[in-house]
Amino acid sequence: MNDVSLNQTSSLEQSFIAARLAGLVLLALSVMTLILVNANSLLFPGSSVTTYLVVTALVSSLAVCILPIRSRLQARYAWIVSSLALLLLIYSKTLEPPMGDSAMLTSLWAQLFFLSRPIALGLAIAAGVGYLLHAFGRDARLESHSHLLSLLAGTAFLGGEIAGSYWAFIGWGRSWSWSGHFFFSALTYLLFILVFHLPKAWFANGKALALGKAAVLGFICVLMLGYRLS
């Protein structure tokens, strides 16, 4: 009986190590891809779609790496997020490589604005998957991890809005004017806030609430990817 328990424990540890290695490999691959993208450009192509996808994959992989894997559900989470990050990297290779941005886009505030989007998206993907798995597996550690990622995603997006407003002010003399782009930004940030303000009374139980949060984050991800790739 003890031998069986030891074998089961060893098998679990191996699956945890494999999931951790998958996240680390994807993180290293994302960093390498980002370096190669930058090597093909005279200026860091922060506004390019290729960079957008690669940074999203990098942040998603990083979100997996900071989670201590202690259960099968968490190992499954690592595999799913790593697989999504790999798909983003593969798709980025089908796009035209960036040739460099204009001098206007080399501003620190411009780079912060453009990079805040994929950072927020990568965190949202990892958080959405975490909430989805938590809804069916009831993992408190995974729920806490997803909550933190959602908070960081909204903060990164808001920080990008602030940086972008200042960049617009120093470039064009004004920081804000309503347009399709700004309406999209406002809507996206409101959805990030909604994740934390979904009324519990709307849901029958904790599982339904977690599914609601996963649905909101999933919609944010589809919205951001669709808007950027269209």
Describe this structure in words.
The chain has 230 residues and is an all-alpha fold. Helix content is 77%, strand content 0%. Residues 1-6 have low confidence and may be disordered.
Features:
disordered N terminus, about 230 residues, mainly alpha, 7 helices
Q: Which structural category fits the helices and strands?
A: mainly alpha
Strand content: under 5%
Outline the low-pLDDT stretches.
1-6
Secondary-structure element sequence? HHHHHHH
Number of helices in the DSSP assignment: 7
CA radius of gyration is: 19 Å
Helix proportion: over 70%
Q: Sheet with the most strands? A: none
Fold topology:
Blueprint: H1 2-39, H2 49-65, H3 72-92, H4 108-137, H5 140-172, H6 180-194, H7 206-229
Helix pairs in contact: 1-2, 1-3, 2-3, 2-4, 3-4, 4-5, 4-7, 5-6, 6-7
Task: Offer a quick outline of the entry.
By secondary structure, the chain is mostly helical. Helices cover 77% and strands 0% of the residues. It contains 7 helices and no strands.
